[in-house]
């Protein structure tokens, strides 16, 4: 192993130490370059130490009972940690010794090499620098060993402080548990006393309630016996009178009900007529709207026809002007030709007579146009065609005017009413229509509500109200009372007699109300 390799190994060791010193988790460990097996063993020991510390921090947050049980285990763990720290110190001592040995070996080798060769000034300077670096390394490793020992002492102090605090917390927890047990005993004693008192009060209440219930049952039995006796005595007379009264009331109610039904049917027919009137009004309004739409369409058609007529008139004027220009040009050309030709009577007669020469003249004129004598000259055939087109356009315009007049004549009857009306009249009619529509809607809603009411309540739509029924029931009861007074002998006004009378009257009222309700239901 050369001196350069040794220097490289030392540099590598220094780099590893600096990296470990920068890591706050491993400040107490300063590794040296060593074998892979030794590194793995040391990493396992360090991981075990970190796990033990984490377990200690977690166990501090557990319950007080677990703390008491784990005190012994923690002491064992602290001893293990101390042993681990002692092992580390020994390890670093060995490392320092190895470094010193390495230093001595390097010095010996250097001396042997210096004896075998002549040294230059530069080599001597390098040797001195290396010596100084080695001395610095020795000092550094000494300081590292001292730091490890200080860290060991600090960890021992911290462990002792934690044990002291844990003992204090265990004692305080025991005191609190004793206090809680005393309070629980007091609460249980108070609960037992309260339960005894509640049982005594409940027994007293049960006895008093049983006595009261017995008294009430006896009173109820007496009242029931009295009611049964009264019912047996009065049942025959009441049945006969009630049957007669019921038949009489039934006949009267049926007769009044028939009268009301007849009135109701008349009202129903009136409503139907009003409904039909409303529907007719709506249909008429729809027709008026359709008429207005048709009227607008007719006006649009009329405007289109007028526009078409104007265009055709313009076209006619243009064609007439064109034909007049053509005729004037032809006339001028003919006159010029006549002036140039010899003025003989026979030639003129031939020219203006229905003769073959006329065709020659027209052919000449057409030849002039074909030669291009003048752009404003036209042939006789062109003149005739233009005249025919003019006549056709006249016929078309006359036919269109006739069609338009016929259409206007048919629709004049529809448009007369609108011509008569002004804007104010139209607005007034629209407002009246809107008001009539609102009234019709309200009447329809009312009719629908009345029909629903009649379906739900049989008295709806009739003059008979519930107050009238109640009054009739009261009158019947008063008549029954008067009849009972006549039939029954006079009794002494005692407390028992008053009670009987009240019971009888209440029973009669209830029965009469039930009968009336059943009748109206049927």
UniProtKB/TrEMBL annotation:
The keyword Coiled coil applies. This is Trichohyalin-like. Keywords: Coiled coil. Residues 156-324 form a coiled coil. It comes from the Eukaryota. Residues 18-56, 68-79, 406-434, 447-465, 484-496 have a biased composition (Basic and acidic residues). Residues 57-67 have a biased composition (Acidic residues). Residues 435-446 have a biased composition (Basic residues). Residues 18-79, 406-465, 477-499 are annotated as: Disordered. The keyword Coiled coil applies.
């Amino acid at each position: 192993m050369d001196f350069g390799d040794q220097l490289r190994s030392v540099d590598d060791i220094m780099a590893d130490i600096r990296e470990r010193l920068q890591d706050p988790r491993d400040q107490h460990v300063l590794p040296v370059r060593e074998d892979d097996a030794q590194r793995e063993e040391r990493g396992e020991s360090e991981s075990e130490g970190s796990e033990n510390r984490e377990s200690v921090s977690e166990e501090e947050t557990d319950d007080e009972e677990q703390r008491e049980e784990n005190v012994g285990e923690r002491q064992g763990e602290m001893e293990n940690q101390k042993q681990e720290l002692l092992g580390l110190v020994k390890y670093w001592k060995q490392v320092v010794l190895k470094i010193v040995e390495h230093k001595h070996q390097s010095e010996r080798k250097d001396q042997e090499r210096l004896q075998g060769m002549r040294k230059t000034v530069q080599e001597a300077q390098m040797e001195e620098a290396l010596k100084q670096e080695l001395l610095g390394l020795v000092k550094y490793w000494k300081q590292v060993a001292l730091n490890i020992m200080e860290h060991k002492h600090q960890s021992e102090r911290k462990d002792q402080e934690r044990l002291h605090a844990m003992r204090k917390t265990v004692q305080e927890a025991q005191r609190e548990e004793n206090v809680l047990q005393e309070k629980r005993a007091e609460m249980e004693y108070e609960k037992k006393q309260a339960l005894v008192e509640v049982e005594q009060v409940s027994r007293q209440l049960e006895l008093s309630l049983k006595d009261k219930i017995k008294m009430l049952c006896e009173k109820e039995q007496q009242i029931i016996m009295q009611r049964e006796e009264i019912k047996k005595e009065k049942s025959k007379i009441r049945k006969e009178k009630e049957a007669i009264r019921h038949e009489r009331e039934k006949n009267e109610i049926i007769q009044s009900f028939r009268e009301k039904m007849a009135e109701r049917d008349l009202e129903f027919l009136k409503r139907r007529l009003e409904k039909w009137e409303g529907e007719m009004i709506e249909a008429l309004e729809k027709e008026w709207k359709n008429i207005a739409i048709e009227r607008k369409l007719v006006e649009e058609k009329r405007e289109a026809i007028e526009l078409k007529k104007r265009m055709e008139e313009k076209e006619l004027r243009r064609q007439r002007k064109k034909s007049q220009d053509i005729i004037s040009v032809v006339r001028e050309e003919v006159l010029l030709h006549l002036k140039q030709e010899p003025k003989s009577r026979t030639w003129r007669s031939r020219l203006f007579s229905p003769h073959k020469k006329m065709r020659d003249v027209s052919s000449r004129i057409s030849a002039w146009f074909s030669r291009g004598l003048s752009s404003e000259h036209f042939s006789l055939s062109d003149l005739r065609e233009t005249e025919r087109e003019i006549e056709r356009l006249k016929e078309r315009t006359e036919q269109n005017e006739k069609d338009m007049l016929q259409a206007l004549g048919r629709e004049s009857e529809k448009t007369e009413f609108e011509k008569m009306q002004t804007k104010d009249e139209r607005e007034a009619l629209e407002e009246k229509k809107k008001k009539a529509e609102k009234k019709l809607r309200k009447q329809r809603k009312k009719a629908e509500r009345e029909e629903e009411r009649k379906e739900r309540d049989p008295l709806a739509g009739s003059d008979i109200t519930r107050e009238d029924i109640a009054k009739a029931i009261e009158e019947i009861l008063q008549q029954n009372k008067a009849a009972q007074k006549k039939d029954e002998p006079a009794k002494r006004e005692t407390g028992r007699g008053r009670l009987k009378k009240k019971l009888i009257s209440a029973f009669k009222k209830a029965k009469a109300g039930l009968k009336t309700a059943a009748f109206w239901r049927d």
